[in-house]
Amino acid sequence: MNDGVTAKLKNDAGDHINHSYNGARFMEKEMIIVLDFGGQYNQLIARRVRECNVYAEVHPYTMSLDKIKEMNPKGIIFTGGPNSVYDPASPTYTKEILEAGIPILGICYGAQLMAFLAGGQVKTAPVSEYGRTETFIDAIDEEDGVLGQVSLSSSLLFENIKPTINTWMSHTDYIAELPEGFHATAHTNDCPIAAMENEEKNLYAVQFHPEVMHSEQGQDILRNFVYNICKCAGDWQMASFVETTVEALRKKIGKGKVLCALSGGVDSSVAAVLLAKAVGKQLTCVFVDHGLLRKDEGDEVEAVFGPEGNYDLNFIRVNAQERFYLKLAGETDPERKRKIIGEEFIRVFEEEAKKIGAVDFLAQGTIYPDVIESGLGKSAVIKSHHNVGGLPDYVDFKEIVEPLRMLFKDEVRKAGLELGIPEYLVFRQPFPGPGLGVRIVDDITIDKVRIVQDADAIFREEIDKAVKEGKIKNPPNQYFAALSNMRSVGVMGDFRTYDYAVVLRAVCTSDFMTADCTEIPFDVLQKCMNRIINEVKGVNRVMWDLTSKPPGTIELL
Ligand code: XMP
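^ thats the input. predicted complex w/ xanthosine-5'-monophosphate below
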């Protein structure tokens, strides 16, 4: 237990722990609430709204109407979801929400739910629509509804939208009958009500997914919702985020001491610099080398943040490799591995805190997708990110400060640039907290760590070279080597080998929620294969991971 700090914080659902969002809530800011009905694009909706400079938060559909009103949102978006509104077991909401005087946009399932709650009829559609679908915006003015490329629909939602747009559809049900007070504002060949609205009550609905890139002018439609209908002014900007967060952190931390978990990755680096700006030398950055870092990474991080580096920080490097290897020995289960690494991290920090004495706050670089993907909302748990779900039940700090907890990755990068962090750090490819622990399938040994470090260094070097030479059309956002648990027979020289297979993975992704395998020229891959097998002892096979996300994830574990 910390000197003088006795509070133990419970963390079984994330909610009990005393997480601090940005040091301050954004209640005073304009906010759109994205009410999550279990669809796959829910985070994306929030990101797209924020790209319109309006702050958005995702909340589960179980959030009460009173709580929503308390948050005073400028608007609400009902997300999509996999269910049918007429199934009594499906997620629903009190119909009073439609009378709360808050503008609402329903998307896909959210559109059907709005129709259902308002007394319309939703049925299984005679023809399901999946993928790109031509959608016709219905001009209200029958005479000359189309002017040039712009629809003259009187709908505020479709202002400056072309009369025909390609939209992304994914539905088996549809709105069969409009509720009273609504009229249809768009249709497709198979869906007579592809959009509807009740202007008087500020209720709008679209059957398609405007948040998805494949929906033409989707971003414009969302912008119309937040500006034309919710009357937002657009006060969400990174410059003001940095300013207000620094201010809020100062207020919260006062004269207290903060320990920041610094990994050298983008998120924790931005969090550290933000905190340093707020509280200067009250901050100590602890960098734990858990022995699962990339090759030479420990020294690189020390070079930037250590005493010889770019910042005036208290910096402590803890070489804890052996301790982590011992804890992980023989463990093969991916989630257990994540939890062990997460827990050990915290223990190391607690010990460092004791040494420093009277540390009240633990700071982490958790970002919004970590929070959502760790299942703190209502979506299914995919993985326990070590910096959220991987925390042990009891954490021996008064409070956890996560200044980036509500930011998406691209927003973190913008904040980093605002803070003057060098571009090469800000645009580094992400590296997961549990490090190579989630890139080594099955148990972790020192030898496997060496193999994956060496193979990864070669692969990154060759990819960076190929990118510089312009050989890769769409350079990957994340690329690395991982180690499979497969051993197979090979022949090297005149000898039989029975060695490991390395997996190479490179993905293009804009949000890390979905990803596609990057097209790498064959000669580049071949060179990587040759070098890895020749230079890395213990490897006799190299595999190329073609899997997209979904169905795969970016990391192997
Ligand atoms: P997945 O594997 O879930 O990864 O598709 C999505 C992105 O998140 C990174 N990742 C993590 N980041 N702590 C982190 O800070 C973690 O535990 C963690 N696990 C995955 C991953 O590298 C990718 O960029």
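Residues 370, 382-383, 385-387, 430, 432-434, 438, 478, 512, 549, 553-555 surround xanthosine-5'-monophosphate (CB under 6 Å).
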